[in-house]
Amino acid sequence: MRSRLCILLAWVVWVAPSAMAFCQVPRPRLVCNEYFESQLVVEATLLKTVAWADIRDNPNENYPVPEFPDAFLYTLRVDHVLRGKVAGNIRILEGNDSGRATFAWTPGKSYLLFLDPYQDRKDTWALDGCGNSGPLEAAQNALSAITTIQSAHDGGAIYGVVTPFSGIQSRMRVEAQGGGRTFSAMTNENGQFHMDVPAGRYVVNVVEPGRLFDTADFSYDDAYGIDIEPGRCGQVAFKELRPIPQ
Prior knowledge:
Order of helices and strands: HEEEEEEHEEEEEEEE
Mean pLDDT: 85
Strand content: 35-45%
């Protein structure tokens, strides 16, 4: 299960004719997760921006530009491909809502971008406004993480967070089962956990007697089927279900 983790609210930043991303937990998104979940990862330079009044009827047609456009189309020159296959220029379509990028787009500036097809279109891409895409000049940590990922030969890791129904955190046990083996970790004071695991497919559960947990609405991975390959990390959020009256 994949979620953009951005609530699409009608939230407008009045200092500029655009809205910015409003992100829910887990935050930040880990590079070792987004890299493998993205079809295309590139370094690219912004060539031009086109504002649209309406993209619902025909996203390839230019409309008269209102004060607050409904969407923006960015054309970029691909400078370096880190994952996937592409050449020449690419187009990124982004709605002007609270799900858009947290950074400003500037012509002539270079960016690190984690992309997927926009609504299954092969010629237009979209990014997770709450992910790791951003200006190349500020992407050194992400680029370093990608280098580590690309040289990995062993297993990966599973990261996550557990939210109790009461909102009061306590240390809880989390188990990952796969390949006939069980791995475990304890949550910290913030409900977070981490475990290193070999490559394989895992089912992850919070193991607390008398309490029930499920994958949270805002979770990058489905706890009941996480595929780990060398360098990849799973990132899952759990929520506790309402206690059953005894």
